[in-house]
Amino acid sequence: MSPHSMNRLASLLGVIIATSLSAEDARPDAPPAPARPITAPAARLAPADAVGFDGSRLGLTDCRVARQAVQGLILAICRDPEMDRGKNPGLRLIAVHHDPNGEHIRFRSPFGGGDAYTANLTVFALPRSGSQVILVDFAAEFHYGTQVFFLREHGLPRLVGNIDGVALDDDDDAAAPSRYVSVLGTSAGFQLRFSRPLIRLDRNGLPGRARPTTYHYDIGTERWTQSGN
């Protein structure tokens, strides 16, 4: 990789770290999770568009995505002017309940995507349950970071952690890790594995060596951990 490419990658990884969850919330430096038996791979879903959804009726702006997650629940990525006045502005995941009586916001992610102006949803259905794993990628000129949510059956999304690295595509350009992720259901929760190694900043603020990385979420303890780097 050329020095110019190294400097550019260092810059964009710095943005990812700045817009990701705090260490206290995401706990990226937690000890590696113990080995957990894998039960089955999760299925990648393609949720239908929420036809007719108008976020402005709920005071939302700049809605980029609106998908029908489950019956009666829409997952949207919008800006919320009320939350933009706080410390974590930007596009964010919002869950909207809708029924014949109207639409109501039931969940707002506490962390926005900063000055990212595009976002994408990737959804997986965990095996033998009605629960889902949701990845939200934020980007502008390049990838900004990925938030991970757990949606329990008949529940609301829960922000469980973030993926604070990028993958490299075939042209050695930074790419959203969700392009290369597989989700595996475990007896305790789920794992995220990647077909390509992820790159993070080292202690000197430079792109570190690409390393295989696995993220774990334990539903019982609500603990988000990572291993492999």
Structure notes:
- This protein has 229 residues and is mainly beta.
- It has a domain at 3-47 and 115-227.
- 11% of the residues lie in helices and 42% in strands.
- The protein is built from three helices and 16 strands.
- It has helices spanning 3-19, 23-26, 81-84, and strands at residues 38-41, 43-45, 61-70, 73-79, 92-99, 102-108, 118-125, 132-139, 143-151, 157-163, 167-168, 174-175, 181-186, 189-194, 214-218, 223-227.
- The chain has a five-stranded antiparallel sheet, with no helix packed on it. It has a five-stranded antiparallel sheet with strand order 2-7-8-9-10.
- A hairpin with a 5-residue loop joins strand 9 (143-151) and strand 10 (157-163).
- The longest helix has 17 residues, at 3-19.
Give me some keywords for this one.
single chain; five-stranded antiparallel beta sheet; mainly beta; 229 residues
Question: Helices, strands, pairings?
Answer:
Elements: H1 3-19, H2 23-26, E1 38-41, E2 43-45, E3 61-70, E4 73-79, H3 81-84, E5 92-99, E6 102-108, E7 118-125, E8 132-139, E9 143-151, E10 157-163, E11 167-168, E12 174-175, E13 181-186, E14 189-194, E15 214-218, E16 223-227
Antiparallel strand pairs: 1-13, 2-7, 3-4, 4-5, 5-6, 7-8, 8-9, 9-10, 11-12, 13-14, 14-15, 15-16
